[in-house]
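Contributing: when you submit paired examples, paste them exactly as shown. First protein:
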Amino acid sequence: MNSTVRFPLEDPLYKAGQAAAEMLQARDRNFSLPQPFYNDEQLFALDMQNIFEKEWLFAGMTCEIPKKGCFLTVNVGDNSVVVVRGEEDSIRAFHNVCRHRGSRLCSKASGKVAKLVCPYHQWTYELDGKLLFAGTDMGSDFDMSAYGLKPVHVRTHGGFIFICLADEPPALDDFGDALSEYVGPHGMDNVKVVAESDIIEKANWKLVIENNRECYHCNGAHPELLNSLYQFDDTEDPRATPEYKQVVERKQNDWESEGVPWRLQRFGQQNRITRTPLVEGTVSMTPDGQQGVGQLMGRLTSPDMGSLRILHLPNSWNHVMGDHAVVFRVIPIGPQETRVTTKWLVNADNQEGVDYDPETLRKVWDATNDQDRQLAEENQRGINSLAYEPGPYSETFEFGIIDFLDWYSQRMLSNLQGLEPELKLANAQ
């Protein structure tokens, strides 16, 4: 039998994959997904294997590991990954698994070490993953070089760290290069995290993303956010008003004169970057819409930079402003449970209590995150009902969800169908 086949034909997960493919092929792209995609254990396992174990994921910021030996960990399903800064400013990622008996090496979310040492039997690894010490009892023929840490693909662009668990990761260069260009004026190599929120939403990860991809709900749910944020984020939005388009044109002229990138960039349906104005009279996502940090980001001379909106599917959206940035990371925990991590960043030269108040900076998105949590959880509860059936999206207000689910469906079908020839061959043998 072909040794590369992941599941035998009788495996329930393989059968779930067949069922998922049939449902995705039959779905109406302007309707929500069938119920199992939001609450079924086996379809969740397929999501983890075919999306989160194969796509580039936003893991964190380079500023979080500023010096040699600094590390952060990210849990992707059952896979713990450690990202560490090593010699000559290199950043590497490894499976957080000792090659001895599989214990986790780093149990904390972040920290600083001289070497990576397993707490179980003290096997010791260099920051480049090389095994340095395995005790004296492994035998004379033990080959140290064969037991280095297993690497994970890692890329950094504009201060953002991305990891990919796949053997052969998909392309990232075009989006990554544009990301570096667009955040360049904000000086993301000289920032620090000044506040962090970690919340658990009792909802499927796709519901969390769906909620983010539309502002149909904003008027009724997000008074704090709408104090500074327009409900649409570019002039191609079918809801964009003539007044908004006039503001956009005026602001774009200002940004052009400062050499700040602003044009909408799309990278398929997975990634997009655009700079869009904030509501007239506001310059930041603070409670009063005014500058909340003394020293602006990077080389900027005006706080009125709007919001640089960055979408990276499947697990991140971001807002980068003139005075601070807010980055979001989504990691599924279970079929109906998702971790949403939010971090607030400012120019590293700012002093807490002098140049900014972290509690003030986080008020708008703390409120918005909690409102979104409640909405997603109520959505999940309704979907779990016997009465649920896929409902229609508004092409005017919810086109972002349609794009997201088109991307999700395409990636799932591509990866599920990729197994088909091997499985048929195995069956024939």
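Second protein:
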Amino acid sequence: MTAVPIDEPGGGEPSRPTRQEQEPASDTVTELAKGLYRLQLPVSMPGLGHVNCYALEDDRGLTLVDPGLPDQATWEALGHHLAQLDARFDHVHTTVATHSHPDHYGGVHRLRAEHGAELLTHSSFSSTFGPDSIWDEPDSASLDLADDEDLERLRQRMRQTTPWGTRREPPTVDQIRGWGGAGKNSTAGGFRVPEPSTTVEDTDEVVLGGRTWLAVHTPGHTHDHLCLYDPVDGLFLSGDHVLPTITPHISGMGTLDDPLAVFFRSLERAKELPEVDLVLPAHGHPFTDLAGRADDIIGHHEDRLQVIREAGLELGDAPVEDYMRRLFKERSWGDMAASETYAHLEHLWLLGQATRSEKNGAKTYRIV
């Protein structure tokens, strides 16, 4: 199989100063190490323009790490990139989902259904929103994304109460169609978390693409986040755990009690991995300084905690949305920003640096 090496023109570039993760998907397949290729797939989600799907070659064919969203544009892009490697869909014998977000596992469904590909995940792989996720309901999964009435029914089911007591505003019709495709037979089933064929625990060894990888469980961004570390060649498939120019979303709507504290511990653990020469993130370009980037991300969240502490001196006993407006620019206000604000407030509350009350069913916080 052939591809453009990373250090040649058109074969990928070293890190840009900002927002690599928002760049549109490249049409070029990049060889990063022997038998390891980056295939960028299109993504239209907040703050993202692509997902890096990594193809690992062995004598049986290919393993694909994070094969993108469950839409037709992703499927066609994946087929185009495989052709550049002189491969087809039926050469894919295994997939890996680093975590339970649809831009990472969505393509698994069709690869499994049409070509028998297996799925490897961490043992905790499950819906980010817990066992009552609407995506796991048979009714929701079968809704037709090309049908206006079905889409509105799906949006109504997404209007759930948040953990901090407000009503969640669902994505727009256009956003849902953009994430899942709107072509013939396009349903919400692609968002359902697939059942893994094989699961790994933290520190397990797994052979993929002719390399022996160490499974590294790194919860925080999600409860089930999995990184893969090749100590021989110093390669680290980081998923969304460590990204080059943006910080992963830390949600207060998941299953972790203190996702920010868990994320900090996972970042500290990543820093301790010896001799990581190349980090392969799920978005953006490969980079080299894992420990330095982890420190940057920790520092970013520490800065956010300080903003909340200072805002609390003025706000007094206030709801999550009031703190959100101090923490984020207006263009970012919404459920995601409120969710991350809530995660930070809960972290301070659990540290004893804030009190928590409830008014009219909504949580309020006072910095102490």
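If you have annotations for the second protein, write them as plain sentences, like these:
The chain has three domains: 4-129+193-288, 134-190, 300-367.
Confidence is low (pLDDT under 50) at residues 1-16.
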